[in-house]
Design goal:
The protein is built from 9 helices and 2 strands; from the N terminus they run H-H-H-H-E-E-H-H-H-H-H. The chain is an all-alpha fold. The protein starts with a helix and ends in a 6-residue tail after the last helix.
Length: about 200
């Protein structure tokens, strides 16, 4: 196999990989929960991650790591680049910083530095660590429980293991092929989607 053929093979494997699709969807959703992104960025983020994966596909070496591990590390690198670039945009010329101590706010009787009027959620928005709404979290947990209950026993077992291990590790632990694990992931995605999880 020539170098070019190897690159094309790796690119095809990545683009058609169910695990890559799942990781990209999850990472894009996580980014869109941050204060510096919005749901309208979802498709652009997913597209950027796919392009990055195809770009680095030539670096994949099956002797060093399995494809799922390579994909996970590549996506993490892409997310780091996206966040770094977003921080650079915030610091670019033309964006003036405002002092919280030098800015007055409040009514006549409570007028004082803006910092006095800030609440914990304001700090969360600044750092991008927006807290998850308790009601939304409860609904998500319930939806996951319902979806898990609908999975066949073997697929449910694989799903539980995937919470703590890679698909390759799960396949080895259960004594099954990686293709069986990927097929189980495809089945999980359909059930989770029907339960209202993972939609764009």
């Amino acid at each position: 196999m020539t170098g070019l053929e190897g690159i094309m093979t790796s690119s095809h494997e990545i683009v058609s990989n169910a695990y890559a699709q799942s990781v990209i969807r999850i990472k894009a959703h996580q980014l869109c929960r941050r204060a510096d992104f919005s749901r309208s960025d979802m498709e652009d983020l997913r597209q950027e991650m796919w392009l990055y994966l195809v770009k680095v596909a030539r670096l994949f070496n099956p002797d060093r790591a399995c494809l799922e591990t390579f994909i996970a590390r590549a996506i993490d690198s892409c997310v780091a680049i996206i966040l770094r670039d977003r921080q650079r945009e915030k610091r670019r010329a033309g964006l003036d910083a405002t002092s919280l101590e030098g800015t007055l706010a409040g009514g006549a009787e409570e007028r004082g530095p803006l910092s006095r009027h800030l609440v914990p959620t304001d700090q969360s928005r600044r750092t991008g660590n927006v807290p998850v709404d308790p009601v939304e979290r409860l609904e998500t947990v319930e939806a996951v429980s319902v979806a898990m209950a609908k999975l066949p026993p073997k697929v449910r077992s694989i799903a539980k293991r995937l919470m703590h291990a890679s698909p390759t590790a799960v396949a080895k632990e259960m004594g099954i092929s990686r293709r069986q694990v990927r097929n189980a992931i495809d089945e999980m995605e359909g059930v989770f989607r029907d339960a209202g999880l993972g939609r764009d």
